[in-house]
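Q: What changes when adenosine-5'-[phenylalaninyl-phosphate] is included in the input?
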Amino acid sequence: MSLEQFQSELEALRTEAADAFSAAADAAALETARVEFLGAKSGRLKAVQKQLGKVPKEDKPAAGKSFNEAKGQIEAAFAAAEERLSSSGTDQDDAAPFDLTLPGPRLPLGHVHPLTQTIEELKDLMGRLGFTVATGPEIEDEWHNFEALNIPASHPARDPLENFYLSTAGVVAGKEGAPLLLRSQTSTVQIRVMESMPPPVRIISLGRVYRPDTADATHYPMFQQIEGLLVDRHATMADLKSVLRLFASSFLGGDVHIRFRPSFFPFTEPSVEVDMSWHDDQGNLRWIEMGGAGMVDPNVLGAVGYDPEEVTGFAFGLGVERVCARRHNVTDIREFYRNDVRFLHQF
Ligand code: FA5
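A: The predicted holo structure follows.
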């Protein structure tokens, strides 16, 4: 068979198939036409394909190209006919009547966000250690976010560029026009709790905090913290360490280590920064900061009317995204806020 003969057969088949598809008045007719032209075993296109073998060797590349083009056009004509029938609803008319007794299609099940799962687990874990959950507002005044936490007006942490101050002012302790801000730490809840009850105190507080930080693998401008506070007669640094170690081994697993580095927070003395261990791709041991902690500064106890001679306390504030990321080996906390269901579905 010559190349020209092969090509003219193809052309004839293409026209005939296109006519048959566009003439099909309903889904059944279209299916019959599909089987006739595109049927995998004995369709007519298949039959023409078999003729390829009879074309002279030197014309085979050109013949193959023509075949692929014609095949593509026939398939496109079929798809167009299918689309026409489904949008015109013709095949709907012939469809079986709707059976109300059939079970409905199964809806895809929703999913609790990994950060919410983490928060629930942390509440559960700390609950077993006797910590109850306290809450506080996300819009705060300077007293709770700074002053009562021993952060005086001159402290760089109060710089407007380091915080999200609101343009609307509030009324705080009867003082009108008091500046308000989105809280930059959950330590605010320590103050609110201690103001509202006498010691002993044993609370955790989980919630969103806001800082104008540039988003990167370990930072986000809105993130979540878990704050812990225990005030009692004989609370010590050793108690703080054992609570955090217990937290790490229960939540992160025995293979994650934590270490304490001396640090400074205006509201704790002494203060530490707490790091957790991880291994990079090369298997090297690395550390990432998970939070700050320390013994509640006597000035803070005094500010809320507690007697620092009578009671001591410890407090900690951990980044929820960071511990969640460590737990699941996620290397970039921004993933938690991209809301890509392919990522979220894995938890
Ligand atoms: C504090 O916020 C203190 N309030 C913690 C504290 C509480 C100290 C009680 C002593 C007693 P810091 O600014 O280091 O500390 O933040 C605590 C943790 O929040 C960090 O270790 C980190 O895990 C997390 N964190 C801080 N900034 C961000 C951010 N931009 N995005 C995500 N996580 C962050």
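Observations recorded in class: The chain is about 40% helix and 20% strand.
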